[in-house]
Design brief:
The protein is α/β, with parallel strands linked by helices and 316 residues long. It folds into two domains: 1-54, Arc Repressor Mutant, subunit A; 76-316, D-Maltodextrin-Binding Protein, domain 2, CATH 3.40.190.290. Helices cover 34% and strands 24% of the residues. It has twelve helices and 13 strands. The protein has helices at 8-15, 19-27, 44-53, 62-67, 85-98, 109-117, 138-144, 193-204, 222-230, 241-246, 270-280, 283-287; strands at residues 5-6, 34-36, 39-43, 76-81, 101-106, 123-126, 149-164, 185-188, 218-219, 236-240, 250-265, 295-296, 303-306. Strands 4, 5, 6, 7, 8, 9, 10, 11, 12 and 13 form a ten-stranded mixed beta sheet that branches. A three-stranded antiparallel beta sheet has the order 1-3-2. α8 links the parallel β8 (185-188) and β9 (218-219). α1 crosses α2 and α5 packs across α11. It is globular and about 55 Å long.
């Protein structure tokens, strides 16, 4: 029996929210969806995952109720940027281990970094390739953050490439194949680090994006793009190896990229961010990592950049 798939209207009724909010959750990558024709659907397992991630905090203990003061208050930390399975895992593990509320907003690397710049988040998850220097992340950080207290931490290196159906039936091997008449492509949204990398590769190969059927079809996370392939709605996507593995698809590696977390310290979040960094660098967090196909965590926790304004001294 096939798993039930819900419409956005049905999801809105289940969670008692507006349909507009459902579409915003899908757009930000917080709720995974797929399309049948031009209709959006959300699987039952995805609803359960989302409900689990958004459970209300535990009720106050009797002593807290009597005093009105929680014994161990939880500070809310805002994380914005690129969606990644390791980021999801880190946020969940750290929230539990450190008694923190971590609010993720998966809106793409560029917008996530801009939210950090505007003071609307505390951590940005990014993988932005500078086409001029061919360096990841730091060229953007150097331009934006001059006087702020910033620390950049390596999470992992990831494999990016073509996600294709099992057995690669269309024999897709390089970027020129995307322009073939028999190939349907699905893209990532503007501002996504994956889109930066794709456009850089297309430019260096002299390929006109308008020649690619589906270049204007945009999805907001790797799993959504890969689901187009698994459902036979597209022949190729550009994304990370772990997304292909999750759906039992084939993967053709193209490039290795650096995925970093950018921490911006303030007087309010300084201690919480310090604890988060130390937790990410701990052996217990590294031991919690499994299913690492497509990831290289040999530099997990390495500090790649730290401004003079950052008072804390961290080691790796």
């Amino acid at each position: 029996m096939e798993e039930k798939a819900y419409t956005p209207d049905e999801v809105a009724q289940i969670f008692q929210i507006s349909k507009h909010t459902v579409y915003e959750l899908i757009k930000r990558g917080e709720l995974q969806a797929f399309k049948i024709g031009n209709k959006m659907r959300i699987e039952h397992a995805e609803l359960e995952r989302y409900k689990e991630n958004t459970k209300a905090p535990a009720k106050k203990s009797p002593s807290e109720l009597s005093t009105g003061t929680p014994s161990s208050p939880a500070l809310s930390i805002r994380l914005s940027g690129s969606h990644d399975f390791l980021v999801e895992h880190f946020a969940k593990q750290a929230a539990s281990a450190l008694n923190l509320q971590i609010q993720p907003s998966f809106i793409g690397s560029l917008e996530g970094l801009m939210m950090l710049y505007r003071g609307q988040s505390d951590i940005a998850a990014i993988h932005l390739l500078d086409p001029t220097s061919q360096e990841y992340n730091l060229p953007f950080i150097h331009q934006l953050f001059v006087y702020e207290s910033i620390l950049v931490l390596r999470l992992a290196a990831r494999q990016q490439g073509f996600i294709v159906a099992k057995g690669n039936p269309k024999n897709i091997e390089d970027f020129s194949d995307l322009t073939r008449a028999d190939i349907r492509f699905v893209n990532r949204q503007k501002g996504a680090g994956t889109r930066f990398l794709l456009d850089s590769k297309l430019s260096s190969n002299g390929i006109d994006p308008s020649k690619i059927n589906g270049y204007s079809t945009e999805e907001w996370n790797h799993l959504s793009a890969a689901s187009f392939i698994s459902r036979g709605m597209a022949d190729a996507a550009f994304g990370i190896q772990s997304a292909a593995s999750h759906l039992g698809l084939d993967f053709i590696p193209i490039a290795k990229e650096n995925f970093d977390l950018v921490f911006r310290f303030t007087a309010e979040n300084k201690q919480s961010l310090t604890n988060l960094i130390q937790y990410l660098q701990s052996a217990s967090f590294k031991d919690s990592l499994t299913d690492l196909e497509g990831y290289d965590i040999s530099e997990l926790g390495r500090i790649t950049y730290q401004t003079n304004q950052t008072e804390e001294t961290f080691t790796w």
